[in-house]
Automatic annotation (TrEMBL):
The keyword Transferase applies. Residues 180-200 are annotated as: Disordered. One of its GO terms (biological process) is alpha-amino acid metabolic process. The gene is AADAT. PANTHER family: AMINOTRANSFERASE, KYNURENINE_ALPHA-AMINOADIPATE AMINOTRANSFERASE, MITOCHONDRIAL. This is Kynurenine/alpha-aminoadipate aminotransferase, mitochondrial. Pathway: Amino-acid degradation; L-lysine degradation via saccharopine pathway; glutaryl-CoA from L-lysine: step 4/6. It holds the Pfam family Aminotran_1_2. Keywords: Aminotransferase, Pyridoxal phosphate, Transferase. SUPFAM superfamilies: PLP-dependent transferases (SSF53383).
């Protein structure tokens, strides 16, 4: 892989921060080292001394004074060592990527911690996109992704999807304006990457099949583009075995995978992580050094202690409990949809995530329906145009989330929606 051709001039120009390098060196040094080099504040001046966090099984994670001093201090930009070590072993065990050699000597793959996966995605986009670059996007798409891409001045090429995710023939059609050999010609500007949410996609709830992933990966090899596998709902897949990931089939080092703990441990703690080719992860870390500097040390230590206490088996048992909850929520929403919306709308059963993507029959634009009339009925959904690459185009879809509402609330909401649709036809 020639990663240099994917990097922006800005990203390629980044150099390591000497102060950040010293911070990381100090953390690896023996206690006998006397350092006058740091610019870190003295933690004895901080007002927080100890903490105790009780987890769901009644056990506790405790921060004594020494650990609290570390938790409140600066740390390495890529992540604290114990969390990185756990994540690297976990990714190897879970995905078994062909390129998963995490030692610097072999160093084909690496992991870094980010302040939620959204920060990681923004840094990936800024690393790869020059104004005028072509990028491929699984459409419709999460508005946060579109908001991150649009200011970068790239040409967003939508790729059609259905209930099984990205349609390979739609991807081939989008690529048909180029020849595979054009990837070696900078003037032809072949797409730099395909961005996709392969499981429980927001907003559609669709999930890519393994067969489609294989086709898509071969197209990525043929046209030499990267795959950004944004997978925040990976741990909310309702059926087992889970489909193999793009990372698991990556033989070239062309997959950048973003993961998140937001949906299963905490959305407010803001912990995500990126797995990908080491040269690209290194560039992301250089950006972290001069922006956020690092994800909260306290948050990282809390998560690391929890994961070490649970182990991989305990973590996956927790995931199973979360899946059971969301599967019951999904089933409650589907029951409400079957009761009130049959004949008025159509939908596919999501096999992951927390969203139901509903097409309203006989209504070509749901924006006014939702943003004005639905509020009067005291029911709120998201109109489909919010997820269009060109959001000036109307949409007959709405997105409903089954994450927070009770089954009774879902039933009442869809009853109100049904009344609204009937009044609008």
């Amino acid at each position: 892989m020639n990663y240099a051709r994917f990097l922006t001039a800005l990203s390629a120009a980044r150099k390591p921060s000497p102060i950040r390098l010293l911070t990381e060196l100090m953390q690896k040094s023996p206690p006998s080292l006397i350092s006058l080099a740091g610019g870190a504040p003295n933690p004895n001046t901080f007002p927080f001394k100890t903490a105790k966090i009780t987890i769901e099984d009644g056990t506790a994670i405790e921060f004594g004074e020494d650990l609290m001093k570390r938790a409140l201090q600066y740390s390495a930009s890529a992540g604290i060592p114990e969390l990185l070590s756990w994540l690297k072993k976990f990714q190897t065990s879970l995905h078994k990527p062909h390129t998963a050699q995490f030692s610097p000597a072999q160093g084909q793959m690496d992991v870094c911690v980010t302040t939620g996966s959204q920060e990681g995605l923004c840094k990936v986009f800024e690393m790869l996109i020059n104004p005028g670059d072509n990028v491929l996007l699984d459409a419709p798409a999460y508005p946060g992704t579109l908001a991150a891409l649009r200011p970068l001045g790239c040409n967003i090429i939508g790729v059609g999807s259905d209930q099984y995710g990205v349609i390979p023939d739609s991807l081939r059609a989008a690529l048909s304006r180029w020849r595979p050999e054009d990837a070696q010609n900078p003037e032809r500007q072949t797409p730099k990457f395909l961005y996709t949410v392969p499981n429980g996609s927001n907003p559609t709830g669709t999930s890519l099949t393994y067969e489609r992933k294989k086709e898509i990966y071969e197209l990525a090899r043929k046209y030499d583009f990267l795959i950004i596998e944004d997978d925040p709902y990976y741990f909310l897949q309702f059926n087992k075995p889970w489909a193999p990931t793009f990372l698991s089939m990556d033989t070239d080092g062309r997959v950048i995978r973003t993961d998140s703990f937001s949906k299963i441990l905490s959305s407010g703690l803001r912990i995500g992580f990126i797995t990908g080719p080491k040269p690209l992860i290194d560039q992301i870390v250089l950006h972290i050094q001069v922006s956020t500097m690092h994800t909260s040390t306290f948050t990282q230590l809390l998560i690391a202690q929890l994961l070490q206490q649970w182990g991989e088996e305990g973590f996956l048992k927790h995931v199973d409990r979360v899946i059971t909850f969301y599967k019951e929520q999904r089933d409650a929403m589907l029951a409400a949809a079957d009761k009130w919306l049959k004949g008025l709308a159509e939908w596919h059963v999501p096999v992951a995530g927390m969203f139901l993507w509903i097409k309203i029959k006989g209504i070509s634009d749901t924006k006014q329906l939702i943003m004005e009339k639905a509020l009067q009925k005291e029911v709120l959904l998201v109109p489909g145009d919010a997820f269009n690459i060109d959001n000036s185009k109307p949409s007959s879809y709405v997105r409903a989330s089954f994450s927070l509402s009770s089954p009774e609330q879902m039933n009442q909401a869809f009853q109100r929606l049904a009344e609204l649709i009937k009044e609008s036809l």
